[in-house]
């Protein structure tokens, strides 16, 4: 039996050496060291041996098994190393190539415009106030002189959450909430930046979501001339000293009298062009003296206090400042567009 074991050992070693991959090596392992292999068969016949031969054959069998196992493991290791080396060659990295630059983010152009406008009004003594975007019907409409079924509500096609809750159509509710906090005592001098929502069809000049900045000043003796003075200072600070303004009569349910603010066209200097539609002027915001009903709903006595309010679209100001022709550019997250404002 010892000679048979040696023959099996030599035969198996040749098979191991000839194995070309892990699969064929595994077949050699099963063939010689498996439960049905010849070495196992030899071991099963040890019961027929004499007491003197049994330990000698057992020792030889263990020696053969350990030798084959060791040889197979070494060959497996060699195959694994070869596989790794091949993979490294196929996935090698050329360290001489230049690295990819890390792109830095920047402020969104709308954020830059809001901060610039805030700085101008803060410099004139205004404070920044904020409020909820999901608003009640009372604050969004009724407190602003728009009772239920008022026809002017059709001017603002609204996203309703429930019969009483809605996505605010303007930042004016912040004005009423701030007046209530003052409990009828002036002055109130705030600007209210934030997102608003209306059921508009998205196109080059309209969006279902956009940004507004509204302003409110309530105190004793406030007049329309104060509003014009604020606009003069703001427009020259934001657009340049050469820009002129004009107030044009208009209608808003929460102000009386009401006016649109126009600024002289920067393209033609007021002579008329395609940008200003030949008028020499560009409309930028709506304004007016706060309606007595709005003052009263905010807790102020309209016999003692007066005030003015205004509201501007942030996207419109950004489009005028940067010469952008489509409002949708602000919301598509196209880095080719946003990269133009990295230095703003």
Automatic annotation (TrEMBL):
Reported cofactor(s): Mg(2+)
Protein keywords: Aminoacyl-tRNA synthetase, ATP-binding, Coiled coil, Cytoplasm, Ligase, Magnesium, Metal-binding, Nucleotide-binding, Protein biosynthesis
One Pfam family from the record: tRNA-synt_2d
Highest taxon above the source species: Bacteria
PROSITE patterns linked to this entry: AA_TRNA_LIGASE_II (PS50862)
Note on cofactor: Binds 2 magnesium ions per tetramer.
Swiss-Prot/TrEMBL catalytic activity: tRNA(Phe) + L-phenylalanine + ATP = L-phenylalanyl-tRNA(Phe) + AMP + diphosphate + H(+)
Coiled-coil intervals, chain numbering: 61-92
InterPro entries: aa-tRNA-synth_II (IPR006195), aa-tRNA-synth_II/BPL/LPL (IPR045864), Phe-tRNA-synth_IIc_asu (IPR004529), Phe-tRNA_ligase_II_N (IPR004188), Phe_tRNA_ligase_alpha1_bac (IPR022911), Phenylalanyl-tRNA_Synthase (IPR002319), tRNA-bd_arm (IPR010978)
Record-linked PANTHER family: PHENYLALANINE--TRNA LIGASE, MITOCHONDRIAL, PHENYLALANYL-TRNA SYNTHETASE
Subunit structure as annotated in this protein's UniProt entry: Tetramer of two alpha and two beta subunits.
Membership in a protein family: Belongs to the class-II aminoacyl-tRNA synthetase family. Phe-tRNA synthetase alpha subunit type 1 subfamily.
Protein name: Phenylalanine--tRNA ligase alpha subunit
Organism: Alkalicoccus daliensis
């Amino acid at each position: 039996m010892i000679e048979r074991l040696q023959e099996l050992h030599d035969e198996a070693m040749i098979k191991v050496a000839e194995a070309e991959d892990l699969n064929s090596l595994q077949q050699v392992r099963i063939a010689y060291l498996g439960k049905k292999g010849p070495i196992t068969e030899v071991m099963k016949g040890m019961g027929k041996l004499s007491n003197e031969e049994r330990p000698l054959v057992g020792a030889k069998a263990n020696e053969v098994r350990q030798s084959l196992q060791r040889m197979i493991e070494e060959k497996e290791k060699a195959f694994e190393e070869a596989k790794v080396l091949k993979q490294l060659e196929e996935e090698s990295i050329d360290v001489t190539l230049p690295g990819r630059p890390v792109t830095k983010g920047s402020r969104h152009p709308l954020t830059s415009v809001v901060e610039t406008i805030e700085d101008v009004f803060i410099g004139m003594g205004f404070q920044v106030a904020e409020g909820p975007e999901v608003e009640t019907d009372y604050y969004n409409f009724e407190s602003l002189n728009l009772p239920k079924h008022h026809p002017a509500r059709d001017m603002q096609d609204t996203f309703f959450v429930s019969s009483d809750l809605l996505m605010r159509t303007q930042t004016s509710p912040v004005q009423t909430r701030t007046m209530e906090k003052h409990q009828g005592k002036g002055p109130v001098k705030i600007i209210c930046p934030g997102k608003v929502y209306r059921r508009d069809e998205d196109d080059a000049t309209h969006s279902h979501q956009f940004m507004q900045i509204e302003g409110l000043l309530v105190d004793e003796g406030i007049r329309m001339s104060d509003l014009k003075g604020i606009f003069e200072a703001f427009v020259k600070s934001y657009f340049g000293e050469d820009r002129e303004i004009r107030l044009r009569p208009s209608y808003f349910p929460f102000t009386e009298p009401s006016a649109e603010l126009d600024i002289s066209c920067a393209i033609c200097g007021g002579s008329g062009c395609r940008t200003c539609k030949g008028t020499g002027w560009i409309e930028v915001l709506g304004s007016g003296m706060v309606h007595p009903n709005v003052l009263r709903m905010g807790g102020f006595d309209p016999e003692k206090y007066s005030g003015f309010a205004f509201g501007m679209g942030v996207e419109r100001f950004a489009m005028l400042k940067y010469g952008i022709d489509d409002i949708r550019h602000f919301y598509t997250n196209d880095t080719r567009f946003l990269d133009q404002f990295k230095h703003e």
